[in-house]
Design brief:
- The chain is of the alpha/beta class.
- It has three domains: 2-54; 75-299 and 424-459, Vaccinia Virus protein VP39 (Rossmann fold), CATH 3.40.50.150; 308-396, no CATH class.
- It has 16 helices and 16 strands.
- The strands form four sheets. The chain has a seven-stranded mixed β-sheet.
- α2 runs antiparallel to α16 (429-453).
- The protein is globular and about 65 Å long.
- The protein binds S-adenosylmethionine.
- S-adenosylmethionine (SAM) binds at residues 83-86, 88-89, 104-107, 110, 128-130, 149, 151-152, 172, 175, 425-427.
- The site of S-adenosylmethionine has 22 residues, from α3, β7 and α7.
């Protein structure tokens, strides 16, 4: 017997749509198509949850949420995802009714994972974003949103901080900008650019300034935040999100003496680096402040994401000992304390070179380290588990990577390294959902209601 997870299941989508019409927020938990030998018998298993609000559904659900938004029917809540990877931006946006009209990536292995999740479709363009004419020809109509998670390598130590301009990989950002320009009347009114925190600091901030100016020169008003996946899943993964919006979508101005908007409050979302850019970096358009609540407190524990049973590929004693010996005295002491206490505990380890020697660095804060693309043993995350005095270790599995990225049932295709690579390069799905809930869908709704009422959208996009 072979079990295939088939998503999205058209029959379920219809059911969910029908329920959504009646005001239910629906979460698909489980659906399988079971094939017995060659004779295909199909069995669907649904678990339907009802939530009080879409916010509750977004926070509690792990799968796709079908919300009863009337806007879903308008058909124009469309987006294009550039640098799509395995499609976790799409994974985060689709539940609230966004429809992807074009996706693009140069990596056939990423495409393989994307297709395994979303099914074969013409809209995934396996090609270089820099092929402007070809990409522009494929973008359908005028999408409302374009997302770009461009490669981070040159904005980090891995790429020797070569930067946005000189870095071979990260300079693909300019291909994205050129494409937006080439789209002319089809240029989306909203863009979201995502990258690592090094985006803010690379070449002393010059790279972020260049990126912001280029988007502003295309007519976008900008806001930026840092959102850490740790608000949603037990993983430390801060990411910079730069939003651009057409002038008629700007949030309502709230003048204060000397300021168009009051200065941003100090918050983890807008740390001083971002506030400094907003205060000092002049743009041909300007900065705006999208009103945002504080991100939620995480409820998921690391132990929820990690499999601790005997069936896991635990290392033999020699490998465990080797890594135990690689720990600093302080970490070894802490581990020993947990072993002696007889309690159950899970944590993670990264190997790092410190002062010329390989160290096994343990995290005790209940978070996994930021998932990284597995270029070598030190980029791969190690699980450390203690259960009633027994110390065990092993590599973290792709399924655990998927859980930490908030997409626990994402299909796994290709080699283990390919799977780890796909997830480590991707966005954290509930973080995208949160952004959708508080930034992207409100922008869309504001534009949609303006079309309906002819009103000024700046008065519709106001939040307390
Ligand atoms: C940080 S990853 C984005 C991952 C994606 N957000 C996800 O959730 O899976 C950057 C992606 O850009 C792709 N890429 C690199 N150069 C590219 C280019 N010139 N054109 C299109 N995609 C490119 C890489 O293959 C990689 O998948």
């Amino acid at each position: 017997m072979r079990e295939v997870l088939l998503t999205p299941p058209p029959a379920f989508a219809k059911l969910a749509d029908a329920l959504a019409e009646q005001g239910f927020y629906v979460d698909l938990i489980h659906m399988k198509i079971v094939t017995l030998d060659d004779s295909v018998s199909t069995a669907y298993k649904y678990t339907v949850f009802k939530y009080q609000s879409v916010a509750e559904a977004v926070m509690k659900s792990t799968q796709r949420v079908f919300s009863p938004s009337s806007k879903r029917r308008s058909g124009d809540k469309t987006f294009c995802e550039f640098f799509a990877g395995i499609g976790l931006v799409r994974e985060g946006l689709e539940p609230s009714g966004w429809s992807c009209g074009y996706a693009n990536d140069i990596d056939p292995k990423k495409r393989q994972a994307y297709v395994a999740r979303f099914g074969p479709s013409d809209h995934f363009h396996l090609g270089d974003v820099g092929e402007t004419d070809e990409v522009a020809r494929r973008v359908p109509g005028r999408p409302f949103l374009a997302t770009a998670s461009f490669p981070c390598i040159d904005l980090s130590v891995a790429g020797h901080y070569r930067g946005l301009v000189d870095g071979f990989h990260s300079s693909t950002f300019f291909g994205f900008v050129k494409l937006l320009d080439a789209l002319g009347d089809q240029k989306p009114p909203v863009v979201m650019v995502e990258n690592v925190p090094g985006f803010l600091t690379s070449r002393r901030g010059e790279d972020f300034a260049i990126a912001a100016r280029r988007l502003a020169d295309l007519g976008y008003w900008l806001d930026a935040i840092v959102l850490d996946a740790s608000h949603f899943t037990p993983q430390s993964r801060p990411r910079v999100f730069l939003f651009g919006m057409d002038a008629d979508l700007k949030p309502k101005e709230r003048p204060q003496s000397g300021w168009l908007w009051p200065p941003d409050e100090i918050s983890p979302l807008r740390p001083s680096r971002i506030r400094d850019f907003k205060a000092k970096l002049e743009l041909s358009t300007g900065w705006v402040t999208v009103p945002l609540p504080r991100p939620p407190e995480r409820t998921e524990r690391l132990a929820d994401a990690i499999d601790a049973d005997d069936g896991q590929p635990w290392w033999d004693e020699a490998d465990v000992r080797r890594h135990y010996d690689m720990m600093s005295d302080r970490h070894r002491h802490q581990v020993e304390g947990i072993v002696q206490s007889g309690t159950r505990w899970v944590g993670t380890i990264f190997r790092r070179i410190r002062e010329g020697a390989m160290r096994a660095e343990v995290r005790f804060d209940g978070l996994a380290g930021c998932l990284r693309t597995p270029k070598g043993g030190s980029a791969k995350q190690i699980v450390i588990a203690i259960d009633r005095g027994k110390l065990r270790m092993r590599w973290m599995t792709p399924r655990e990577y998927a859980r930490l990225q908030g997409t626990p049932d994402f299909p796994l295709v290709g080699t283990t390294n390919q799977q780890l690579w796909g997830f480590a390069d991707a966005v954290c799905v509930p973080a995208i959902r949160w952004i959708d809930l508080h930034v992207l869908t409100p922008l869309y709704d504001s534009a949609a209601s303006t079309q309906l009422t002819g009103g000024d959208p700046r008065h519709t996009f106001v939040r307390k």
